[in-house]
């Protein structure tokens, strides 16, 4: 093969590669003819979706004497919960009856792109193999990726050629931000938590949830985190009677729920293209009527046919017979926060078995019922420990979706 056909894989250089990467992204985002498609604007920062992780890498594939960029891939590594175990004899002061998290080093692949003019040349496979080398060099035990279950080319590459197994099928739930505020039930009282309080709650109540990040404190203290909010029955606490997180955990109310809000609007923007004039007109009419008569609470369609931002809800959880109602109140609060900050949608991702799912308002047309996560064990020389091979484990009721990777 001559120099004009030589393929080189190397680390992304922000000083000279941005235009080439943007061109590849543009070519790969050509939607189906006559159908609506979702496009992403990374706001000039190709590594924006991984840069907040503890460790990350972006690779580009360039070809020929002109060094044309024809492919790219991003990856990051973090430590997460893969299972749980019981403490032995209360060692280190732990309650022997309370499960403890089992952690593993997990890598995540996202943003694999190959220019349409250079597909079926093995470039995607080479990019995956190269970034997996970096994962292993940095001690990652597992690697996973997420894709739409209908993306047959991606599923085939990872499961047939790269050794990944279908692992989890969470749902992406999307709610439009209306022109009116959502009314929150009077029986729900919402308390804003400090990052420290939120960390205490998450570590004590959710640290054994699958994919829980061990560096949850870094997430909660990140500038993109807009806050964590706790919903309790009205009359439970007032601003003066809030006992603090230790007091809350020692004697929680019968029902409660919690979530945190991540400002994805500062990371990327979205845009729906390919909509007919009729659909655009109906959407605009719904907004006009909603603004003119907000008391009607018409479920208007936001302006999604221009670039719009979203807030991502994460860390969703709760307990008690009215936890679903508490979660619905929190989602209403999050909707109103997104409205104030000019977002087009609010989104979250939860397990298909999530007990609080019915309390999360969403539109089916905007949501993805089955987001496919595929996982691979990167080496056989790891200790099976208390969990065994994570890729063979049964799913739990909930998962903790890290907002840094959405």
From TrEMBL:
PROSITE patterns from the UniProt entry: GNAT
Gene3D superfamilies per the UniProt record, alphabetical: 3.40.630.30
InterPro entries: Acyl_CoA_acyltransferase, GNAT_dom, Plant_NAT
Key words of the record: Acyltransferase, Transferase
Family: Belongs to the acetyltransferase family.
Domain N-acetyltransferase stretches: 7-189
Protein name (Swiss-Prot/TrEMBL): N-acetyltransferase domain-containing protein
CDD domains, per database record: NAT_SF
One MF term in the entry's GO annotations: acyltransferase activity, transferring groups other than amino-acyl groups
Domain of life: Eukaryota
């Amino acid at each position: 093969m001559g120099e004009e056909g030589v393929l080189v894989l190397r680390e992304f250089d922000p000083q000279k590669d941005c235009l080439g990467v943007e061109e590849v992204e543009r070519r790969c985002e050509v939607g189906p003819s006559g159908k609506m498609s979702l496009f992403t604007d990374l706001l000039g920062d190709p590594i924006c979706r991984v840069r907040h992780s503890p460790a990350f890498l972006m690779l580009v594939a360039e070809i020929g004497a002109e060094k044309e960029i024809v492919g790219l891939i991003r990856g990051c590594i973090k430590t997460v919960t893969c299972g749980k175990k019981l403490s032995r004899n209360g060692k280190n002061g732990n309650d022997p009856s309370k499960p403890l998290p089992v952690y593993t080093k997990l890598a995540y692949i996202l943003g694999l792109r190959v220019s349409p003019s250079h597909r079926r040349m093995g470039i995607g496979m080479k990019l995956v193999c190269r970034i997996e080398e970096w994962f292993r060099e940095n001690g990652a035990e597992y690697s996973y990726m997420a894709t739409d279950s209908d993306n047959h080319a991606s599923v085939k590459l990872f499961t047939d050629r790269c050794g990944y197994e279908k692992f989890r099928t969470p749902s992406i739930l999307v709610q439009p931000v209306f022109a009116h505020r959502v009314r929150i039930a009077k029986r729900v009282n919402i308390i804003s938590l400090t990052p420290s309080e939120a960390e205490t709650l998450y570590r004590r109540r959710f640290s054994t949830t699958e994919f829980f990040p061990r560096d949850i404190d870094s997430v909660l203290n990140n500038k993109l985190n807009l806050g964590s909010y706790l919903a309790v029955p009205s009359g439970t606490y007032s601003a003066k009677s809030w006992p603090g997180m230790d007091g809350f955990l020692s004697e929680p109310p019968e029902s409660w729920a919690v979530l945190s809000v991540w400002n994805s609007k500062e990371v990327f923007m979205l845009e729906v293209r390919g909509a007919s004039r009729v659909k655009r007109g109906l959407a605009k009419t719904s907004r006009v009527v909603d603004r003119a008569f907000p008391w009607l609470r018409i479920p208007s369609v936001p302006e999604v046919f221009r670039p719009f931002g979203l807030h991502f809800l994460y860390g969703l959880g709760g307990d008690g017979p009215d936890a679903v109602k508490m979660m619905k109140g929190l989602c209403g609060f999050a909707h109103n926060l997104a409205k104030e900050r000019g977002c087009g949608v609010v989104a979250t991702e939860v397990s298909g078995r999530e007990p609080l799912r019915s309390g999360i308002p969403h539109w089916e047309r905007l949501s993805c019922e089955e987001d496919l996560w595929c996982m691979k064990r990167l080496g056989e020389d790891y200790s099976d420990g208390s969990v065994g091979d994570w890729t063979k484990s049964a799913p739990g009721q909930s998962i903790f979706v890290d907002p840094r990777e959405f």
